[in-house]
Design a protein that fits this description.
With 127 residues, this protein is an alpha+beta fold. The protein contains six helices and four strands.
Length: 127
């Protein structure tokens, strides 16, 4: 495993206090789509993979993160239509640090959950 990734996203990383507080807020205010996906991913329910929600990686917070798969998952609502450049920069930064970033629209989670889960499964280590 890449030691730089562990430094950025592992259990011994240094998280600025304001970023930690923001992640806690986001956990309390999750969207309906995030709640649906979280029910599938939590408690190692999905291929026994450990996922975290609203997880800090570097200066960013990702909706869901699986360290074993080096996988960051974002569930995007309409607000992301206006910040595509910002999202692309963020994805590029994560990819440059060895992470795979998957983005799904809220409606994909609502209407095509099996397809979303199938896409996620492709990036997980074998159970």
């Amino acid at each position: 495993m890449n030691p730089e990734i562990s430094k950025l996203s592992g259990c011994n990383r240094q998280i600025p206090r304001e970023l930690l507080g923001r992640a806690r807020e986001l956990r309390k205010q999750q969207t309906s789509a995030e709640a649906i996906l979280w029910e599938c991913l939590r408690d190692r329910r999905f291929f026994k993979a450990k996922f975290r929600r609203q997880h800090n990686i570097g200066q960013y917070i990702v909706d869901f993160y699986c360290h074993a798969g080096l996988l960051a998952i974002e569930v995007d609502g309409a607000v992301h239509d206006a910040q595509q450049v910002k999202d692309a920069d963020r994805d590029e930064w994560m990819q440059s640090h060895g992470l795979t970033v998957l983005r799904f629209r809220n409606d994909e989670v609502f209407d095509e959950l099996e397809k979303v889960l199938g896409a996620i499964a492709l990036y997980l280590p074998s159970p």
